[in-house]
């Protein structure tokens, strides 16, 4: 067995804002990935690091949140401030971090299973509140970590490990779900096109408000019915259609229908910041205060309150 190359130790004391001085190497972790060969998570992992480097963000200038799942195995494989929580519960954690510190980008990384099963109500209220966070949704249409069960995004009729006769429920359309809630940013990427995925992750992080980025990916172990070749025959970049208007919600909704023969990737819908203020900007006394909530809490003197209990 060949020895593994040694990677640099994480430097969490680094504070870099110049894009020319931040490199992908700064985000390296000594922990090796355990994903299956060919897993789309490798591309998403790379795209997150590439986007943060392009934005000039050092590991100490970003927070990433994960839940349980194959996507969550990325948590210790990227050198940054990271929180890993319960399955399907990534959104409340990300929202809390974003509300506490409005000055850093907060990225929530989750799977289609946890997000649209027990986590669906968290997604609903995160979108309607328009928290300033980015959700990167790994959509491989199965529960990969628990050996290939169906998720709400698995096609109807598809045979899975716990659905040997085929899934009987109707399939949930995750893109249209986000559009129905009028999310302020809705985009799609594909793990088979890393260059384009890099751009989509960067755009999602740059958007002020709730950014929903669904990433289509192949699960080589439990999802051969939607493999890389199947996607490559169907995906296209919506920005190549010069007539497409990403501010048109009706157009985005129609384009995202499962009845379409082709699958659009790119920014499908984006609202102007003036039309979609983030949660903190809807609260006047917080909007006018440049300090973060975390800083405001530190500034409170509770000694008088404590005296009442003596």
Automatic annotation (TrEMBL):
Keywords: Iron, Iron-sulfur, Magnesium, Metal-binding, Oxidoreductase, Pyruvate, Thiamine pyrophosphate. One of its GO terms (molecular function) is thiamine pyrophosphate binding. GO terms for biological process: cellular respiration. Its cofactor is Mg(2+); thiamine diphosphate; [4Fe-4S] cluster. It comes from the Bacteria. Pfam families: PFO_beta_C, TPP_enzyme_C. Residues 81-215 form the Thiamine pyrophosphate enzyme TPP-binding domain. NCBIfam families: PorB_KorB. This is Pyruvate ferredoxin/flavodoxin oxidoreductase, beta subunit. It comes from candidate division WS6 bacterium GW2011_GWA2_37_6.
